[in-house]
Amino acid sequence: MNDIGNKKEWIAMKKVTLKNGRELLIRKATVNDVEEMAKFKMCISGESDFLSFGKGELEITPETERKSLTLKTGRITP
Q1: Which of 21, 24, 53, 66 is the most buried (most CB within 10 A)?
Q2: For residue 12, what are the CA distances in angstroms to 9, 47, 54, 56, 60?
Q3: Buried b (16+ CB within 10 A) or exposed e, 44-59
Q4: Strands in 1-78 per DSSP E
Q5: What angle do CA 26, 30, 36 make, to 5 degrees?
């Protein structure tokens, strides 16, 4: 359970054990993840022909990721 603002909220998580023995945690993104999300999208934007956008075609910043996350979750983020 995460404490977002004054509201307690359940965040779905799943642990997967990889072939090499390491554990991978899969969870929903939170506002604390926006900087890393922006970095990741900038990185992959020039690496795949299977995305609807290419390198430099979108403005990808922590702020745009925060807005996108707010729209997807319906929560106002700080």
Answers
A1: 66
A2: 10, 29, 31, 33, 26
A3: ebeeeeeeeeeeeeee
A4: 2-4, 7-9, 13-17, 23-27
A5: 80
SS3 41: helix
Over residues 39-49, the pLDDT tens digits come to 998 888 888 77
Q: Is 72 exposed, middle or buried (0-12, 13-18, 19+ CB in 10 A)?
A: exposed
Say if residues 16 and 26 touch (Cβ distance below 8 Å): yes
Q: List all residues 6 or more positions away from 5 whose beta carbon is below 8 Å from its beta carbon.
A: 78
| Cα 31–chain centre separation | 8
Tokens of 78: 């700080």
- Of the candidates 58, 2, 69, 57, the one whose C-alpha atom is nearest the C-alpha of residue 29 is 69
How far apart, in whole angstroms, are the C-alpha atoms of residue 52 and residue 36? 20
The predicted model scores a pTM of 0.62
